[in-house]
Amino acid sequence: MTVSAQTPAPVDLHAAPKVLLHDHLDGGLRPSTLLELADEIGHELPSTDADGLARWFVESAASGSLVRYLETFDHTVAVLQREEALERVAAEAVLDLAADGVVYAEIRYAPELCTGGGLSMEAVVEAVQAGFARGVREAAEAGHRIGVGTLVDAMRQADNHMAAARLAVRYRDAGVVGFDIAGPEDGFPATRQAEAFDLLRAEHVPFTVHAGEAAGIDSVEGALAVGALRLGHGVRVADDVVAADAPGGAPQLGRVATWVRDRRIALEASPTSNIHTGVAPSYAGHPSTLLKDLGFAVTVNTDNRLVSGTSMTREMTALREEGGWSDADLALASVAAAEAAFLPLPVREELVLRVRDGWAALSA
User: Fold this and answer.
1) To the nearest whole number, what is the mean pLDDT of the chain?
2) Phi, psi angles (nearest 5°) of residue 252
3) CA–CA gap between residue 364 and residue 83 (Å, rounded)
4) Helix (H/G/I), strand (E/B), else coil: 300
5) Looking at residue 91, what is its pLDDT?
């Protein structure tokens, strides 16, 4: 009698402990909250129905243009000009992520975008931190243990990078774990904010840089030149990978790609967002698959949950069902994210163990 081995059941991705490194606060509002906040200030939205509003964001984001994608933020930023709104949205972001099985998240936003109503950048940061703290408490009460770190963004097309960098330094003992620059890559290289990165290195504040999304390998080189420890998206690193000449041969990495791979500079890949902005043709054709197969530290992220209509569970499900990723691949990406978190080493090691053990238990 022959006994055949049973195929292991797929991991319950919703239950899997997930680490999220790239999530924008102003891109992840609940549609119902956006409607309420817009009504309070008299801001007109494209739809007065939560489901219709959610559809509008995804349809607009899926245009294939990063510029059009970024235009959707005109509506979300408009309602984030008051302390109570900032605190509410921050708390809800934590609760939504915790309910999706995220155990640690680094959530980013640009304080400078929330000063149109008269708030100082300091007041913006303090309101958001109060919201994150409330969200963590309420999540714990609901049985979800989640940690949250803040990344302060500067908009690369503006001139507030020094003020934003100083905020990251000032609030680094109050929940801010790092810094980032966001916005259009083309024409605005990371080296344009070199002074801010000089300050951050001098003050030992870690930072990531949006690079290798809308722009190619030159953008990645610019981020590396200022000392980025992670790359926001970063998937255009694949531009520096050349297919082997001979059938069955290994792809050849250029010097930039080799540097990123060998130094484990984490790539904050966001598959759905990358498809929407035209960076990738599909989940099956997403560059992160090639890069993780070549040994890069690829992580999986949401980028903007409202704008792209996504969640961490949805991103991982799409990669597994359409991108050919195994549960082992997703577990490794989760561990890579934990290892790349801007946390003190003992806390990071504890997070890595929690993630690794959690995935192992679900796979048993």
Assistant:
1) 94
2) -100, 130
3) 46
4) strand
5) 98
Would you state the CATH architecture of domain 18-363? Alpha-Beta Barrel (3.20)
pLDDT averaged over 10-residue windows placed end to end, the chain, 364 residues = 61 98 98 98 95 94 76 94 98 98 98 97 98 98 97 95 98 97 88 96 98 86 96 95 71 94 97 92 95 97 97 98 97 98 98 98 91
Instruction: Kindly list the domain boundaries of the chain, sorted by start residue.
Output: 18-363
Say what the pTM is. 0.95
122-135 pLDDT tens trace: 999 999 999 999 99
C-beta separation of 149 from 343 below 8 A = yes
> Active-site residues: which are they?
213
Q: Please say whether the beta carbons of 17 and 101 come within 8 A.
A: yes
Do β-strands 241-242 and 252-253 pair in parallel, antiparallel, or remain unpaired? antiparallel
**What one-letter code names the amino acid at 307?**
V
Three-class SS of residue 138? helix
> For helices 194-202 and 161-170, what crossing angle results, to 10°?
10
β-pairing verdict for 298-300 and 266-269? parallel
Number of Cβ within 10 Å of residue 9's Cβ equals 9
- The type of residue at 334 is S
Please give the span between the terminal C-alpha atoms of the chain, in angstroms, as a whole number: 26
Q: 75, 38 in Cβ contact below 8 A?
A: yes
Q: Rg of the chain's alpha carbons, rounded to an integer?
A: 20
Best CA proximity match to 150, nearest among 103, 108, 205: 108
* CB distance 309 to 339 below 8 Å: no
The CA distance from 276 to 274, in Å, is 5
107 contacts 180 by C-beta, under 8 angstroms: no
Which residues are registered as beta bridge partners of 102?
18
CA distances from 281 to 171, 207, 278, 341 (A): 39, 29, 7, 28
